[in-house]
Design goal:
Elements: E1 38-43, H1 51-65, E2 69-74, H2 80-90, E3 95-100, H3 102-116, E4 128-133, H4 139-143, H5 151-158, E5 162-171, E6 174-176, E7 179-183, H6 184-193, H7 202-214, E8 219-224, E9 227-239, E10 261-267, H8 271-283, E11 292-297, E12 299-304, E13 311-313, E14 316-318, E15 324-338
Parallel strand pairs: 1-2, 1-3, 3-4
Antiparallel strand pairs: 5-6, 5-15, 7-9, 7-13, 8-9, 8-12, 9-10, 10-11, 12-15, 13-14
Helix pairs in contact: 1-5, 2-3, 6-7
């Protein structure tokens, strides 16, 4: 981290356009070991309340209409995408397309990255990851230029996309591509999972208020280069992308290819301050609030003083039987298709 100037808060890294490259700046598909003409599609049929299942045949037809060969597989539950993606890599797939929401992208990316890590920890180039977003939040889709694109237009953008190397986060033997969170964010995921009837933006907003009514901020010890704090914390969100939970811009200046994770720490807040914070987080203007600290790091360690940690990884709930974890960035590990 750069040295702090007088009056600058510890843990807050100055932003510089020079030191933060455009993650979408990459070569075209022709430069990725020859032109890609085949997609291995992994689709979550439950995504979008069943919309993904209905979209499979049109997606396959559109790839073929664009001159691409295509294979398609459906997941049968959470985590199955990891197995399917790893198997596709072993079979020689060079472009794997995740069709679904952020959970589907999370699973497929983990399959690609785990298979790209050989024996003895040696790392090999992972195949390209493409995304056709059919979910609720679709946070990762915002990073790759296909957010709010219906399946057919998304396919058309993928076949003319550029390649880019994105960073990924790693914690507790699992990767995340967009964000990981401890505290309130994980509790919101728990409440959302228990409220399946909601859809669209309400599926994120309603659980926020329901979670706040029952949530008790844990005591956490947070350590990173240039930042250390112990106390009651509402949440710690560790971001590779700008948003999490669909519309919440926890890290408005984050870039997924700059070799750093953007961290948002929110200390314990009152109900009044919580209500004030929600629209500010959605706008990305929460950084000036006294309860908030924003900083960049390559590595961060979190320790719970109250009990086992509860985390979310890309919106997927994790409850490991441990009180401490270290999150680190692995720069440029994920090869992605970024729409022009």
């Amino acid at each position: 981290m750069p040295d702090l100037t007088p009056g600058e808060k510890p843990g807050v890294t100055r932003r510089s356009a020079v030191s933060r490259p455009d993650p979408a700046a990459g070569s075209g598909l022709n430069a990725y070991n020859g032109r890609l003409l085949h997609a291995h599609v992994i689709l979550n049929p439950a995504a979008g309340r069943g919309a993904a299942a209905r979209a499979l045949d049109p997606i396959v037809r559109e790839f073929r209409r664009q001159g691409w060969g295509v294979e398609a597989e459906r997941t049968d539950g959470p985590g199955h995408g990891v197995e399917l993606a790893a198997r596709a890599v072993r079979a020689g797939a060079r472009c794997v397309v995740a069709v679904g929401g952020d959970g589907t992208v999370h699973d497929v990316a983990n399959g690609l990255l785990r298979q790209a890590t050989g024996g003895g920890g040696a790392q090999h180039a992972a195949p390209l990851l493409g995304v056709v977003p059919i979910g609720t939040g679709n946070d990762f889709a915002k990073l790759v230029g296909v957010y709010r694109h219906a399946p057919i237009p998304a396919v058309r953008r993928l076949v003319t996309a550029r390649t880019a190397a994105f960073d990924i986060g790693h914690v507790l033997d699992e990767y995340f591509v967009n964000s990981a969170g401890i505290g309130f964010g994980a509790e919101v995921v728990r409440v959302r999972n228990a409220t399946p009837g909601l859809s669209g933006f309400l599926s994120y907003l309603v659980p926020v208020f329901r979670a706040f009514a029952r949530f008790r901020p844990p005591r956490l010890d947070v350590r990173a280069s240039g930042f250390r704090e112990t106390g009651y914390m509402m949440m710690v969100e560790i971001c590779n992308g700008t948003t999490a939970g669909g519309s919440y811009r926890f890290a408005p200046a984050a870039l997924p290819g700059d070799g750093r994770l953007d961290v948002c720490v929110v200390r314990r807040v009152s109900l009044a301050r919580f209500l004030l914070a929600i629209p500010r987080v959605m706008r990305g203007t929460h950084g000036t609030m006294r309860e908030v600290a924003l900083f960049q790091t390559r590595r961060i360690t979190l320790r719970s003083l109250d009990g086992p940690l509860v985390l979310h990884l890309d919106g997927e709930l994790r409850e490991p039987a441990t009180r401490e974890c270290t999150v680190r960035v692995e720069p440029g590990r994920l090869n992605v298709l970024v729409a022009r």
